[in-house]
Amino acid sequence: MKKATSMVMVASLLLSGIVDAKAEWIKDQQGKWEYFSSDEIIHNFYSEKTTEFVKPVKLPQYYQADPRWSFKRYGMSNMKISGCVPTSLSMVISGLKQDVTPVQVADYIYDTSMEMNTLFSGTSSLGAIAALEHWGFNYRIINSKDDLKNALKNGNIVFGAVGHGIFVKGYSTHAIILSGYQNGNTHAVDPDNPERTNKWYGIDDIWDQRSMELEDNSAGGPFMVIYK
After folding, report:
1. Going by C-beta distance under 8 Å and a sequence separation of 6 or more, which residues neighbour residue 201?
2. What is the largest CA-CA distance in the chain?
3. 73-227: CATH number
């Protein structure tokens, strides 16, 4: 009888949302319990006040500093220093359509446009769009923080350029990939730092740190939804 009582107590804790925040069972938007297999802890565990959860899209992890391509040079810089956009896009393309490397994406942008390491260091949002269209993807520019939240709640993948803050400690800008939603947070994939990637961050903070640089806004904004 003691064993049966313990099982009832555990089930009760799970259903009430009082269980430790490190638990990996999360209630989805349809009210079903789903096992979240990511190694990353979701800090905002389901409770009566947290009813929305959208699982992040599983993508391969590439790094711009990978020794296989980190020192390949494009114009005024190399992949390690300024390859965040092609590296980020290669993860999306590989995860949703076909395997490509960051170098393949960088080669295309550099060889077919002036949008990577020519007039400025890095890749503009127009360069990102050129690569997406080449690999058969569509895009939509995000116009507001609410638009960003709704896109993530709807299960979309978002490419974003951010400035100083969580992902950038200096005065440069950086590209990341966002997907998933949990109580005002989203899951970020960072092509640069293993300590920052595959973790959950506040959407308000990410939006406040969006890049204001001209190159990152040349398509109309620094954030865009990517879809097939």
Report:
1. 166, 185, 186, 188
2. 74
3. 3.90.70.10
Rounded to whole angstroms, the Cα distance separating 108 from 219 reads 18
In the chain, CATH 3.90.70.10 covers 73-227
Condensed to tens digits (0 to 9), the pLDDT of residues 48-75 reads 355 689 999 999 999 999 999 999 999 9
What is the DSSP code (8-state) at residue 28? -
Residue 75 near residue 116 (C-beta atoms within 8 A)? yes
Provide the pLDDT for residue 106. Answer: 98
Q: At what angle do helices 102-112 and 125-134 cross, to 10 degrees?
A: 110
CA distance 116 to 129: 12
Task: Using CB atoms within 10 Å of the CB of residue 132, give its burial: 0 to 12 exposed, 13 to 18 middle, 19+ buried.
Answer: buried
How many helices (H) and strands (E) the chain has is answered by 7, 11
Instruction: Give the residue with greater pLDDT, 12 vs 224.
Output: 224
Give the pLDDT confidence of 71-117 residue by residue, as tens digits.
999 999 999 999 999 999 999 999 999 999 999 999 999 999 999 99
